[in-house]
Amino acid sequence: MRTTRSAFCFVLLTVTLTGSSVFAADEYEYDLVHSSVSFKARHLDISWIHGRFNEVSGKFSLDRDDPTKSTFELTIKADSIDTANAARDEHLRQPDYFDTKQFPTITFKSTKVKGIDGGYEVTGDFTMHGTTKPVTIVLMGGEEHEFKGVKRVGFSTELALKRSDFGFDPKAIGPIGDKALIMIDCEGVQK
Amino acid sequence: MPDPLLYLKSMTAAAIVSAVVMMAMVAAGRAAQNAWRNSACVIAVGTGLAIAFRVQSMWPTWPPVSALDRLVLIVLPIVLSLELLAGFRAITDRTAWSLRIVLAVVTPRILLHGSVYLDGSDVNWTMARIGVAMAISAVLLVLTWRLLVLLSLRSEGPSIPFALAITLLCGGASIMLAGYIKGGAAAFPFAATLSGVAVTLSISRWRRPTVDGGNTGCGGTALIGIGLVTLFSLLFIGRFFGRLSTVDGLVLLLTPLLCWVSELTVLKRQRPWMVGTMRLLVVAVPLTVVVVNARLDFDRRMGPLLLQKFSSLPSAAVGIIFGTNICPVDASTNTTVPSS
User: Fold this and answer.
1) Are B229 and B75 spatial neighbours (Cβ–Cβ below 8 Å)?
2) How far, in Å, CA of B197 to CA of B17, rounded?
3) Model ipTM value
């Protein structure tokens, strides 16, 4: 009887300890309504063309006690590109640019997270146009706000990429600059 | 942006290199044998294409991630090997056609590999629908292939490879006008290589007729196989990855079959050069309609984006294919305006 009780206590203790470490991280889902993934690229090297991706999903877990255990994931549907011009959007979906029938998504998945003053420094794999490269982004924010009983947290970041690094045809770059700036402002809703 | 001067350079290089390789192989010895000429055709096409892709900086990436890479790195080597094998007398006609049918069946699958069509993420394309599309494509390819080879065995000559070459040119222009520049540009080296080899093959046949029989038509069949599989693949890619319409794709694929017009009684007894010319003229009619239609569609779609007057249709079409910029001309300043 004593053996059984000891075993039960051990199991309970283990579950409690393990559980506490699991639940220390808060899980959030990307809130499409209050977030945006937009970009801009140079046109003829004299001005900027702006656009955005309308269909984005993602999730992140935040461990306030140990930021290195936090994770971030983002999936962008390349087909949802929107530059406020339907003809140009259609052109950008073609194989010369995003090739959305072959590479339907653009993804980011964190591999290393470090807490910094005012946010997180997140290193991860960025996959676009079938090419994966490690990138490091600085996520600023992370303040929580409870609205109607639901906890929310927000981040923002900017990321500079060269399209030619991701297998885009250099000849298709033309009057649009090789370098593109991606701006991510996202709000997460706690699960 | 399209670079017509580069396309012209690569086409010239492809035509010259393939013709020189063909001539060298024909002169090398066993020129009067069908199998040797067939091998010469395949090797000449392969060499010409390799040079053209180099000039055009179209070297595919390994592993092949795009459909165009898969065409160049998987489908093209298979069809070249197949036509090389088919030229040997040890390979029976039945075996050769069995291999061609297998290739026709697997080509659509290879080209669509890893795309939204096969992973089920495109709601408009269920697995059943894409299966039917691939099956119909394969059947059309086999039928067209068989009919063109049959025609070439009835009346040989360079007109069928030439018909395929001009269809490739027009197909490339249509794919470009539909928005896929690199896909369209890939067609030009194929057209030039086919033409270069077809001319050299005709000259070699005229100077030294073949002495043995065989099932291959001494090289003409190989050119048809390579040209047709390439044309099919580019149109398939243009349709499924670009914006080439199904109707345009079908018309372009089936147009070379109009070469059968030469079997009409009134034309059958004409001189070979006249028969060849008639074939090319008949084939050119629907091709012109498709390219003009593609150009009009381009103007309609891209007009709002470009926001200025376009250059006149003939000069623009000539410019796209032969030498000037695709950019429209601003009539007020007479300068080209880059698209965004």
Assistant:
1) yes
2) 9
3) 0.78
